[in-house]
Amino acid sequence: MTPAEQSRQAADICRLAPVVPVLVIDDLAHARPLAEALVKGGLPALEVTLRTPAALDAIRAMAEVPGGVVGAGTLLTPADVKAAKAAGARFGVSPGATERLLDACAEHDLPLLPGAATASEIMALLEKGYTVQKFFPAEQAGGAAYLKSIGSPIPQVSFCPTGGITLKLAPDYLGLKNILCVGGSWVAPKDAMARGDWGAITALAAEAAALGR
Ligand code: 3PG
Description:
Oligomer: single chain
Shape: globular
Distance between the termini: 29 Å
Bound molecules: 3-phosphoglyceric acid
Order of helices and strands: HEHEHEHEHEEHEHHEHEHH
CATH class: Alpha Beta
Largest sheet: 4 strands, parallel
Number of helices: 11
Structural class: alpha/beta
């Protein structure tokens, strides 16, 4: 899949809701009820980070949930891309971008949201055809003010910023022309997951889904 086609598909996924939950799943038993709770609250696109041993099985379980669009985050290597695709991930997210990672996404037909944090990184990805990128780590790298400034010389690229974003900070990003959605883990707090308090997670998702763009 070409980078342009990957970005086209990534844009469609980013437009599903203002927020993409970034999920770290330790317990496989949480995967399905968590996905159901988030989809019920109005957040269909879900990023499962490949940071825990349960992550790939969690993607498999969540991919079965009606209405969900489950992707894999923290893609670092070609092996991650292959495993994510085999588990049923419909999109990929990476904190940065390497040639090997980009080649693997092209080869395995996985729409990638590649990470970038500087003008040169953004330009290098744009040169390849990636017009939709993840801005990471968003708050630490300059936040909404930085992305607003990038939008003047490089208006062709749209972003999903993630890293340090909260319900309170999200509107600063969502008000910008070059933002499609934001990513964040605040909608799935570890303590609510541990308690199995899926109602609380649906409420957080609903609050996030109601953010304006
Ligand atoms: C991440 O990859 O961890 C995301 O950027 C989420 O960051 P957050 O936990 O600060 O929302």
